[in-house]
From TrEMBL, chain A:
Lineage: Bacteria, Bacillati, Actinomycetota, Actinomycetes, Pseudonocardiales
Top-rank lineage group of the source organism: Bacteria
Database matches in NCBIfam families: hypD
Protein name: Hydrogenase formation protein HypD
Gene: hypD
Listed Pfam families: HypD
Gene3D superfamilies xrefs: 6.10.20.100, HypD, alpha/beta domain 1
GO MF term (any one): carbon monoxide binding
Signal peptide interval: none
BP-aspect Gene Ontology terms: protein maturation
InterPro entries: Hyd_form_HypD (IPR002780), HypD_1 (IPR042243), HypD_2_sf (IPR042244)
Length: 375, 90
């Protein structure tokens, strides 16, 4: 119970915990999915599961954009980086994601130039400063990040930069949630909606979950109290027989989202017919590609991509973890063959990945304690 | 890269009004505020920053709360700050 000792609002947390417990119907089990990797991080870091009745379990969703990039896309990125005069750029989190023949660091050891950047605008600056290099930015992320890539591409177009392009791997959250809701091996009672994605898309896109699937969604902030409060709101909806989209994070998330960001995405990107998610397989309309009108900035068209589909390693159970069917430590290679230093699957790479978050912080959750005591 | 971090706007670029200098945990860096559209931030405002762009304006109390949260998560925040320090947006 580190959370109790360390957290300044421990009293409020206890009060919420009691209110949540009071809403549990006898004999009923509850499963809520937190879609966002940031939430997973907070839950493990603060041991929030210890604050919940045993009958409520939290299932970690596919909300870490690094974790869902399939091996074939990593290989494609390395293929681009191997072309003459290419300077490939990507966020630091991508550097350790394994492809079929190694990660970006391994590739650099063999001569490619793949550099970490903080922002796509840093990649743009590299393009301006290195006119004889072809600078490619590997865009990854959900709707939180896609507007930044789109704005950068628009800027490159306005400046008439000829040596900048985007390898677009942006994914969208709604089709992924729908795929999870349709997956037969998972029964959920509701969702904690992602906070930052929602600053861009707003709350309306989640309405299908309430309307078509009859399950509540509460868009949640990232602090421990936000998450407990959101679980309380989910429980309250269930107790009152409601299924609605609620906004616990209204201090940051406007219900209609960010129209400027949505416009930027819509100007340069469009949905792909389908996209492969690591572990989850192909999901239709679940990712974005560059529109024809910006083809000159689309690395997929500039460079001939092998586009080979690479099967996930046999030992890897990321798919089950991403769907919330398995807890991270139930994977056969968790913490043995697969660690943050030598990840086999992507959930171990980014700090927001469920396996990495659990590996770093999760050793004292209630299941672990029970296992350790042989109960 | 999934983190959004709060920064206080300390300067707006006179020639490029979509660029602002922000102070984040003692680091000063230029970010782009174009996503805030026709409600650009003023000096003294707090914004949530994600990969070099201001994602939304927040009040000071929220900024403080997010900073507490980030301090609590440790290494990934340090990594994000290190990445931000290396950033040279213009
Ligand atoms: S332990 Fe490694 S291989 Fe297993 S699910 Fe997690 S990331 Fe994937």
């Amino acid at each position: 119970m580190r959370f109790v000792d360390e957290y300044r609002d421990a009293d409020k947390a206890h009060a919420l915990s009691a209110k949540i417990a009071g809403l549990c119907e006898p004999g009923r089990e509850y499963r809520f999915m937190e879609v966002c990797g940031g939430h997973t991080h907070t839950i493990y870091k603060h041991g929030l599961e210890d604050y919940l009745p045993e009958r409520i379990s939290l299932v970690h969703g596919p909300g870490c954009p690094v974790c869902v990039i399939p091996m074939g896309r990593v290989d494609d990125a390395i293929h681009i980086a191997r072309q003459p005069d290419v300077l490939m750029t990507s966020f630091g989190d991508m550097m350790r994601v394994p492809g079929s023949g190694g990660n970006f660091f391994d590739s650099n050891a063999e001569g490619t130039n793949i550099r970490m950047v903080y922002s796509p605008l840093d990649a743009l600056k590299l393009a301006r400063g290195n006119p004889d290099l072809r600078v490619v930015f590997m865009g990854i992320g959900f709707e939180t990040t896609a507007p930044s890539t789109a704005m950068t591409l628009l800027r490159a177009a306005a400046e008439g930069l000829r040596n900048f392009s985007v390898f677009c791997n942006h994914v969208t959250i709604i089709p992924a949630m729908k795929a999870i809701l349709d997956s037969p091996d998972l029964r959920l009672d509701g969702f904690l909606g992602p906070g930052h994605v929602s600053t861009v898309i707003g709350c309306r896109p989640y309405e299908f979950v309430a309307r078509d699937y009859g399950k509540p969604v509460v868009v949640s902030g990232f602090e421990p109290l936000d998450i407990l409060q959101s679980i309380y709101l989910l429980m309250l909806q269930l107790a009152e027989g409601r299924a609605e989209v609620e906004n616990q994070y209204s201090r940051v998330v406007p219900p209609e989202g960010n129209p400027v960001a949505l416009r930027a995405i819509g100007t340069v990107m469009e949905p792909r017919p389908y996209f492969e998610w690591r572990g989850l397989g192909f999901i239709s309309h679940s990712a974005l590609r560059i529109k024809d009108s910006y083809a000159a900035f689309d690395a997929e068209r500039i460079f001939d991509l092998p586009g080979v589909r690479v099967a996930d390693p046999k030992a890897c159970q990321c798919g089950e973890v991403l769907k919330g069917v398995l807890k991270p430590w139930e994977c056969k290679v968790f913490g043995t063959a697969c660690t943050p230093e030598t990840p086999i699957g992507t959930c171990m790479v980014s700090p927001e990945g469920a396996c990495a978050a659990y590996y770093n912080f999760g050793r004292f959750t209630r299941q672990r304690v029970k296992e350790a005591s042989g109960a | 890269m999934c983190l959004a971090i709060p920064g206080e706007v300390v300067e707006i670029d006179a020639l490029r009004p979509d660029l602002a200098t922000v102070a984040v945990s003692g680091v000063r860096r230029v970010i782009n505020t174009g996503l805030l559209g026709d409600a650009p931030p003023a000096v003294g405002d707090w914004v949530l920053i994600h990969v070099g762009f201001a994602l939304s304006k927040i009040d000071e109390a929220e900024a403080k709360a997010v900073l507490d949260f980030l301090d609590g998560i440790g290494q990934s925040y340090q990594d994000e700050l290190a990445a931000l320090k290396a950033s040279r947006i213009e």
